[in-house]
């Protein structure tokens, strides 16, 4: 969608979500922003208002399906949402051991259930209007599971494949779906990584790439290209060969 006027972004208090909010903020734009950190979200909202945007915020965890649905449908009832960017996500290391069940479930709850909770309340309304765009935040980590990040890779893979299928389902109703697959982007999430992150880029540049891809209606917005190419290749090579390659790769701590 080239000119969305009402944009709903989850996880807008930092990282890519914050950068996207600031990228879209302008006179005539209404931003609906959610996050879990009240102080950081308020700062983002103030900066967006300084750029002329009308901003509405709320502190809601995307795993709270009922509360999130009630809030977003109330906002959609005021002014219809043009674009939803289901961006909120979390990651965690294993401390060199095996990921716990509690951690795995928490990551899936935010990264997968949180995406579903963010988009599904709006799908019937967008279909009825015959317009709208849905963007799902996946990752280049979705193309092949990596040791030390099992739940993160698995949850992002589910988001990517789900979004790709949903795109085919909603296209005939006039609703676009795009899946975003970033590589390493400067954020609170990547700040804790203790391994080399090739082609690490700042969040503002990532937001520009994402916004351009969404404006063009791309089904997949994946970047940077070198990391994307390697990630895609790891996903199609024989598993045994990839296991040998990744055995030498650094693990998420």
Automatic annotation (TrEMBL):
GO cellular component: a single term: membrane
Every Ketoreductase domain range: 5-188
Record protein name field: Short-chain dehydrogenase
Pfam families given in the database record: adh_short
Upper taxonomic lineage: Bacteria, Pseudomonadati, Pseudomonadota, Alphaproteobacteria, Rhodospirillales
SUPFAM superfamilies (UniProt xref): NAD(P)-binding Rossmann-fold domains
Family: Belongs to the short-chain dehydrogenases/reductases (SDR) family.
GO molecular function: oxidoreductase activity
Entry keyword Oxidoreductase: yes
């Amino acid at each position: 969608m080239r000119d969305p006027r009402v944009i709903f972004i989850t996880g807008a208090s930092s990282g890519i979500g914050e950068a996207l909010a600031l990228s879209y903020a302008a006179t005539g734009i209404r931003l609906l922003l959610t996050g879990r950190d009240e102080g950081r979200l308020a700062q983002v909202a103030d900066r967006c208002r300084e750029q002329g945007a009308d901003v509405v915020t709320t502190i809601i965890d995307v795993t709270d399906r009922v509360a999130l649905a009630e809030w977003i449908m109330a906002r959609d009832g005021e002014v219809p949402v043009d674009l939803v960017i289901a961006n909120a996500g979390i990651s965690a290391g294993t401390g060199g051991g095996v990921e716990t069940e509690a951690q795995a479930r928490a990551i899936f709850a935010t990264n997968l259930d949180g995406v579903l909770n963010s988009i599904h309340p709006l799908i019937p309304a967008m279909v009825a209007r015959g317009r709208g765009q849905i963007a799902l935040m996946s990752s280049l980590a979705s193309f092949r599971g990596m040791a030390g990040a099992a739940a993160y890779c698995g949850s992002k893979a589910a988001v990517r494949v789900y979004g790709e299928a949903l795109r085919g389902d909603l296209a005939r109703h006039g609703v676009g779906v795009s899946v975003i697959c970033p590589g390493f982007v400067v954020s609170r999430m990547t700040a804790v990584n203790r391994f080399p992150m090739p082609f690490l880029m700042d969040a503002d540049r990532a937001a520009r790439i994402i916004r351009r891809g969404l404006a063009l209606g791309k089904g997949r917005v994946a970047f940077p290209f070198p990391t994307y190419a390697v990630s895609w290749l790891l996903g199609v090579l024989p598993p045994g060969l990839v296991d040998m390659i990744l055995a030498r790769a650094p693990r998420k701590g």
